Automatic annotation (TrEMBL):
GO molecular function per UniProt: heme binding; iron ion binding; monooxygenase activity; oxidoreductase activity, acting on paired donors, with incorporation or reduction of molecular oxygen
Gene source species: Perkinsus olseni (Perkinsus atlanticus)
Family (UniProt): Belongs to the cytochrome P450 family.
Keywords: Heme, Iron, Metal-binding, Monooxygenase, Oxidoreductase
The protein's required cofactors: heme
Binding-site list for heme: 140
The protein's name in its UniProt record: Cytochrome P450
InterPro entries linked: Cyt_P450, Cyt_P450_CS, Cyt_P450_E_grp-I, Cyt_P450_sf, Cytochrome_P450_monoxygenase
CDD domains in alphabetical order: cytochrome_P450
Length: 195
């Protein structure tokens, strides 16, 4: 799953940078957390010190999941929304619709929703059950790797670049659906922080 995971992680980070263009205050908060590390580059050992950055990855996966659909085959007769679903029927969940409809604030980008009650750590129970990774026994085996790799990649970008913004008008960015949902027309301008 290393090959499959690389594209999905890259698309997740790209979408996160898109949301940073829309929410510079969130971008600044994440960068401040990275700067508190006091060294470069961020490493896997720094993950516990980057809860808000990880929450940005989790929130990106909630509002803009890289995979569009989550199919499940019904194994026994089940009632769903007042309808009888027979065994063998494939039911497909539209991930983005489900995750935004089931969350307070819908499509609003709020990374802090993934923090625990005191706001100092990622709520691991909630993160573990993230629908963007599927669910049950077929949940994505690369979930942990994606979160770690995405967090470190995003932290590295934030450490090295200031004022990440779209080159023209962020409203032209569209979701292009192939196997994954990638941001089309996402042209970023980044100012290097250090020489």
């Amino acid at each position: 799953f290393l090959i499959a995971g690389s594209e999905t992680t890259a698309m997740t980070v790209a979408w996160c940078l898109y949301y940073f263009c829309l929410h510079p205050d969130i971008q600044d908060r994440a960068r401040a957390e990275v700067d508190q590390l006091g060294h470069d580059p961020p490493t896997i050992g720094d993950l516990e010190k980057l809860p808000f950055v990880e929450c940005c990855i989790l929130e990106t996966l909630r509002v803009q999941p890289v995979a569009g659909l989550l199919p499940h085959e019904c194994v026994e007769t089940t009632a769903l929304d007042g309808k009888q679903i027979q065994p063998g029927t494939v039911v497909v969940v539209m991930l983005r619709k489900a995750m935004t409809a089931l969350s307070e604030g819908g499509t609003q980008f709020k990374p802090e929703r993934w923090l625990d009650r005191d706001g100092s750590e990622v709520d691991r129970l909630r993160a573990r059950d993230h629908l963007g990774f599927g669910g049950g026994p077929r949940q994505c085996p690369g979930q942990s790797m994606t979160l770690k790799e995405g967090t470190i990649l995003l932290a590295t970008i934030l450490r090295h670049f200031d004022r990440i913004r779209h080159s023209s008008d962020v409203s032209i960015v569209r979701r292009k659906s192939k196997i994954t949902h990638e941001p089309e027309n996402l042209e970023l301008v980044m100012q290097r922080r250090f020489t």
